[in-house]
Amino acid sequence: MLWIRRAGRAVLTGLLWAMAWSPIGPIIGYIVDRDGKMDEPWIAVGVFPAFMSGLIFCAVLAIAERGRRFDELSLARIVRWGALSGALVGALPFALGDTGGKPIPLWLFGFPLYVGLLSASSAAGNLLLARKAEFNLMDDTASVG
């Protein structure tokens, strides 16, 4: 039952991050596709990476910080784990993608960096909220792992 609770908290973290990042996709869409010629659901550009980053962040914490309380971890550690989680998600399209022979736009190479930075800031926000509210999404029985 413990793993079900942890999985639920990871999903909740992913959903919270997705809500926070949801304006990012339309902003990118406005910058990249001002004339509206691309048929893209731009909100997904922010929501999907956020959700996946939140899930991976929780998994990384459960493995790397086993036995430690989330709200007792240093901000620097949380930011590093968040950045790593986001960079992994940002690199995923390059690892799995097929461009169909077309060159990849140069701005897209910054995607792991962008997602890493957003993930790091979301992780920091999670920690600051956990410390302030004394409510811990990651904490089950006083430890992360």
Residue share in helices?
55-70%
**Global Rg:** 16 Å
Whole-number mean pLDDT: 83
- The number of distinct β-strands equals 0
What coarse outline follows from CA principal-axis ratios? elongated
User: How many domains would you count in the coordinates?
Assistant: 1
Question: Could you give the order of the helices and strands?
Answer: HHHHH
Number of helices: 5
Protein model, in words:
The protein contains five helices and no strands. Residues 141-145 have low confidence and may be disordered. It is mainly alpha-helical and 145 residues long. The chain has one domain (2-133). The radius of gyration is 16 Å and the shape is elongated.
Give the topology, please:
Layout: H1 2-21, H2 24-32, H3 43-64, H4 75-96, H5 111-133
Write a compact overview of the structure shown:
The chain has 145 residues and is mainly alpha-helical. It has helices at residues 2-21, 24-32, 43-64, 75-96, 111-133.
Quickly list its features.
66% helix; disordered C terminus; single chain; 5 helices; 145 residues; mainly alpha; 0% strand
